[in-house]
Automatic annotation (TrEMBL):
The keyword Transport applies. This is Peptide/nickel transport system ATP-binding protein. Belongs to the ABC transporter superfamily. Transmembrane segments: none annotated. Keywords: ATP-binding, Nucleotide-binding, Transport. It comes from Kitasatospora gansuensis.
Length: 255
């Protein structure tokens, strides 16, 4: 059974159509990539998936529930299972909280006893490849790549089944990007986590997505296995995205 099912959603902002008849499924342990240029509707779809926005018509189900309509205890339980990694962690992390406290925060919210939190924070730091001593740093004292790992550790704190990533690597340079993408792949192999991974960059999506949907002006123009889209794109728009993505990602340096 899919973890996330979005069916025939439509969404307008005033007269402007952001999404028209978009359907998408994410199965447990799967990475679905969503590509398209700026304004194609990717963030709107992410917000629908996270229950931050309601569609005008169509349905969104996460673990068989509508994430937008949940309240109280069931909302907390679904929030724990469905997490988000934003594009700009510098904007989403509290500048007054040290990195360790930022990662401990969701543990507190979801009821982990205070005495158990330091050990779990240390484990999360290790999972995302952050040195333990960075826990004492403030966001302004961390690099873009380190901040994105802190944002990822925060998202992983509640042991989610699905993480929606909205352009999580686009502010990073190519080699840092490649290492972060490999980290996501490794996490998925170890934990069976699923990702809905949003990017304007097909080279990034190809690196980790099993299936890809190409969104243009709110409409899915093409979808299929990542390799197929890469080697045999059917739609001219996918080809144009491919041409824009000729700048290949380097192989990451392994430590
Ligand atoms: N709150 C809003 N009010 C009005 N129009 C909006 C709003 N949010 C998005 N839009 C419009 O809806 C369309 C889809 O926007 P969306 O942000 O989902 O696209 P996107 O692919 O994520 O773009 P980007 O990569 O620039 O974030 C765009 O035309 C955008 O201008």
């Amino acid at each position: 059974m899919p973890l996330l099912t979005i069916e025939a959603v439509h969404k307008k902002y005033g007269p402007r159509t952001a999404l028209a008849d978009v359907s998408l499924r994410v199965a447990p342990g799967e990475t679905v990539g969503l590509v398209g240029e700026s304004g194609s509707g990717k963030s709107t779809l992410a917000r629908l998936a996270l229950g931050l926005l309601a569609p005008d018509s169509g349905t969104v189900r996460f673990a068989d529930q509508d994430p937008y309509r949940l309240r109280g205890r069931s909302a907390r339980s679904v929030r724990a299972r469905l997490q988000f990694v934003p594009q700009h962690p510098r904007g989403s992390l509290n500048p007054a909280l040290r990195a360790g406290a930022a990662v401990a925060d969701p543990l507190r919210l979801h009821g982990t006893p205070r005495r158990d939190r330091p050990e779990q924070v240390a484990e999360l730091f290790q999972q995302v490849g952050l040195k333990p001593e960075l826990a004492r740093r403030y966001p302004r004292e961390l690099s873009g790549g380190q901040l994105q790992r802190v944002a990822l550790a925060r998202a992983l704190a509640t042991r989610p089944e699905l993480v929606v990533c909205d352009e999580p690597t686009s502010a990073l340079d190519r080699s840092v990007q490649a290492r972060l993408l490999d980290l996501l792949t490794g996490l998925q192999e170890r934990t069976g986590l699923a990702f809905l991974f949003i990017s304007h960059d097909l080279a990034v999506v190809r690196r980790l997505a099993h299936r890809v949907l190409v969104l243009r002006n709110g409409v899915v123009v093409e979808q299929g296995p990542a390799e197929q889209l890469w080697s045999d794109p059917q739609h001219p728009y996918t080809r144009a995205l491919l041409d824009a993505a000729t700048d290949q990602l380097p192989n990451p340096i392994t430590h």
